[in-house]
Structure formats: C-alpha cells, structure tokens
TrEMBL record:
Vacuolar Fe(2+) uptake transporter. One of its GO terms (cellular component) is membrane. Keywords: Ion transport, Iron, Iron transport, Membrane, Transmembrane, Transmembrane helix, Transport, Vacuole. The chain crosses the membrane at residues 33-55, 67-89, 126-149, 155-176, 188-207. Residues 97-120 are annotated as: Disordered. One of its GO terms (molecular function) is iron ion transmembrane transporter activity. Residues 97-117 have a biased composition (Basic and acidic residues). It is found in: Vacuole membrane. This is Vacuolar iron transporter. Belongs to the CCC1 family. It is a multi-pass membrane protein. The lineage of its organism: Eukaryota, Viridiplantae, Streptophyta, Embryophyta, Tracheophyta.
Length: 213
C-alpha cells in the first residue's frame, strides 16, 4: 500500500494591524484654548450685558458694552494664552537642553525629548485660537440682543441664546475629548447661569442704592 504524502498547506492568517488608539490628550492644547475661550466669551459678555441691562434699558448701551467687552476680552485672552504657553515652551526647551548636556546619563530621557520636539506647544497658535474662540462666543449674546426692542424680552432672549450655546459648546468639548456628555453640558450650563444671575443681581443691588449712571 503506497504511502500517501500529506502536504499541509498553511493559510496565512490575515494580518490585522491593531487599531491604534487615538491619544485624545494630544488635542488638549488647542481644545482647551478653543473651548475655554468660547465659554469665557459667551459667559463673560452675556453676564456683562445682563449687568448693564439690570440698570439700563437702552439697547444701544447694552450693545456697545458687549462690543467693548468683546474687544477687551479677545485681546486679554490672546495675550494671556501667549504668555502662558510661551512660559511652558521655555520650560520644556530648557529641560531638553539639560537632557542633551547630560549625555549618556539621561540617554533615555534625551531620546524621548528628541522625539517630542514636534509636539512642543505653539504660543502663537494657542493665542489665535483663544482669541478667535472668545470672539465667536462673545458675539452670540450681542447678536441675540441687537434686534430686540423690548427690554425684558431682550434679557430673556440673551439668557435663552446663551443657554443653547453653552449646551452646544459643552457637547462639542465632550465629544472631541471623549468625556461624559451630560456632565460636561450640565457643568457649563449651570456655571453660565450662575455667572449671569450673580452679575445681574449685584449690579441691580448697586443701582438700587441710588448710584446714578
């Protein structure tokens, strides 16, 4: 009986490259500047307009106040972010220089530093992102109030528009950062309401003391 030659054919398994997990922490720099800038612009300018609206019914006064706050806030955010990120950049560059000077003593740290040069923070990018985001957030309550003649309705529209925008910003930030959606939205919404209510109440209190504006 002839021996049967069994040829074993090995079918190569498909080489499924492991799906790389995206490091959402890489978004931290620009996401932080953009989301915080938009929230700051939205809440601060809305609160400023609500405070003025507590003692002034003139729509022109509210709009001018809003624009003044927008210009001042955008410049402040840009300068503050630039200085902050530039300081961080100086610290990281100084650390990389020290690692290079130590030679073999910190070889592993030095190699990591060389690989992370492209990930160094960009102060100009952070400043522009913060300023633009602040302006986009700040313009919303201004536009909401611009075409409303009735004073009380104008205040209500500002609160409604700001609330919707806060929910949107909170949702966008949570989605991009893969953080809990409900908690993020609730946090920014409640914070915005508190800021507007406190500013309105305290300004109304000061105005009721007889201070003429």
């Amino acid at each position: 009986m002839a021996a049967q030659n069994h040829v074993q054919v090995t079918i190569p398994k498909e080489n499924h490259a492991p799906e790389e997990d995206f490091d959402y922490s890489q978004r931290a720099q620009w996401l932080r500047a953009a989301v915080l800038g938009a929230n700051d612009g939205l809440v601060s300018i809305a609160s400023l307009m609500m405070g003025v609206g507590a003692v002034q019914e003139n729509v022109k006064t509210m709009i001018l106040t809003g624009f003044a706050g927008l210009f001042a806030g955008a410049c402040s955010m840009a300068i503050g972010e630039f200085v902050s990120v530039y300081s961080q950049l100086d610290i990281e560059r100084a650390q990389m220089k020290r690692d290079k000077e130590t030679g073999g003593q910190n070889r592993e740290h030095q190699e990591d530093g060389e690989g992370n040069k492209e990930q160094l923070p960009n102060p100009f990018q952070a400043a522009v992102a913060s300023s633009v985001a602040f302006s986009l957030g700040a313009i919303m309550p201004i536009l909401a109030a611009a075409f409303i003649a009735n004073h009380k309705l104008r205040l209500a529209v500002i609160v409604a528009a700001v609330s919707l925008a806060l929910l949107a910003f909170g949702g966008i930030g949570a989605f991009l950062g893969r953080s809990p959606m409900v908690k993020s939205c609730a946090r920014v919404l409640i914070g915005g309401w508190m800021a507007m209510a406190i500013t309105f109440g305290l300004t109304k209190l000061i105005g009721s003391t007889g201070l003429e504006i």
